[in-house]
């Protein structure tokens, strides 16, 4: 199951989020401390995707995404498990995959479209073309999806939404 909403975010919102990433994401030579992938220092290599965790930094956008998700009903209490702004560089791509089993919903908001490639593709052969402000919502733990190779710079805002489990750190738990 997947749905697309055009103009989910305004052009101004998208430009603000790209500027936020540029202002807050460290250069490849500097470590990111901490990341969800590590307990210590994580270095990015030149050309890798550059995710910037922004959990709960933009509550108006969070609420808009959650309102859409909860509109499907029947899932109990859902939470934003993580979300990030990601810079995709030339050559970056993602193979066909499913998200983690506890991530019931995945939302991907395209922040720019001045690049080639970078389409999201689904296992049924569907290709979703990036457009500024467009949001793709899918059951990421069920629907296999990937990204075609990017030529240029692609920015996305991703959300992974599910239930709280023993591995999820909620606000206030981390010291």
Summarize the structure.
With 175 residues, the protein is an alpha+beta fold.
Question: Which CATH class is shown?
Answer: Mainly Beta
Query: How far do the termini sit from each other?
Result: 38 Å
Global mean pLDDT:
84
Strand order of the largest sheet: 1-9-5-12-3-2
* Residue windows where pLDDT falls under 50 for at least 5 positions: 29-44, 170-175
Biggest sheet overview: 6 strands, antiparallel
What is the count of helical runs? 2
Under the CATH scheme, which architecture would be assigned? Sandwich
User: How many domain modules?
Assistant: 1
Beta-strand share of residues: 25-35%
What is the number of E strands? 12
Helix/strand order: EHEHEEEEEEEEEE
Query: What is the CATH topology?
Result: Jelly Rolls
Structural class, by secondary structure, is alpha+beta
Q: What is the overall silhouette?
A: globular
| Overall radius of gyration | 16 Å
Protein name: Prolyl 4-hydroxylase alpha subunit Fe(2+) 2OG dioxygenase domain-containing protein
Organism: marine metagenome
